[in-house]
Amino acid sequence: MTASTRKKSLIIALIIVASLLFNIIPSLGAVVLPSDYQGLTFTDSTIPIVFADGPATPPLGTGSLTATIAGAGQRVRFYEEYGTFDGSFNLTGGLDTNTFTLSYSTYTDPTATNTNSWYANIYLLLDSSFPATHVFAGPIPNCFRLDFVPADNPADGTWRTYTLTGTSPVYALAGCFGSPGTLTTWSAFFTTPPISGLVNNPRVTAVALNIGDSASTYVGYVGAFDNLEINGTVYDFELTPPVAIPEVEAPAVASPPVTGCIYKRAPGFEMSNQPDNTYCTSLIQDGAIVAYPGAIPENLIRAGVIRAVDIFRLEGGRSIATFPDYAQACLLGDGRFIYMDATQAPRQQVEMPTTLTEISGSTYTCAWIPNPGTVILINK
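Given the sequence above, the corresponding structure tokens read:
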């Protein structure tokens, strides 16, 4: 292994460690498609599972999961499981309720006559020290469920995001199944009787999302679901796979070889440690698109792009998709640094660890990148 390769491997390890410590790289890339549910399991759905473009402008990408509840007993339901169980229903793994996060976005169509929103079943389990005769003990030992039921989503054709917080109302069930019972809040359930004082921390074993029910409560609902986040994993529901960023038409190779990076086409951008024959093209400058409209994903545009630059290499008229070592890319401004690696197809969005650097009296946000690709600075 060369010194350059060792250095690159070390930097990769440091970035992975930084992402774990600071949670700066959420698990993106969970694009849920009709052909790939990304680990989600659709169950007990009594109507077809329908993905669609839109409606309106979804919070992520261009599509969503849609549902129309036309009669009693109709429902769309899917879930994700966490952890494993032994024969005594002791849990290994699961999600810690102290750090558990959940949010999602829903849309109610103006034609809907029912404005009930999607709701979440959060299944929890305690270990074998949980009293078998406890009020929340059910047919499955030590298992109980909290239902997060957000407020109605008005039928005005607007996407709204619902986030589980400590003050969010939840219904506590006796056991894992049955009708919703005691109305409480997420934090109160764990800090006041009957759960408080237990030495074992409840663990989330599964999360199910629903619209519709066995009763007629949801008849008349017409709407959509998108932008699900569970413990840092983001699920984007799409009818079709995201379109890969089009390849940027490169300028002719200079002769003799170009030393460093051509910056003239990318003001407000600096690089270091890049190889020869590296080129840089500005895509968005001071928030305005200057080249190749559509090259930056819509969700980043909505987040507010300060500037974006495409970085590529050419040698002898041939495109080179890799760097021999990490290069540092710096974008003018203070924001979140998103990197889309050119070696991936489609290019995935990854938020990078950054440092702020002063260059010529101005503040730049800098990150080390392993390969050519697209670098984007968005608002914090």
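Confidence is low (pLDDT under 50) at residues 3-29, 245-260. Try to locate this feature in the token string yourself.
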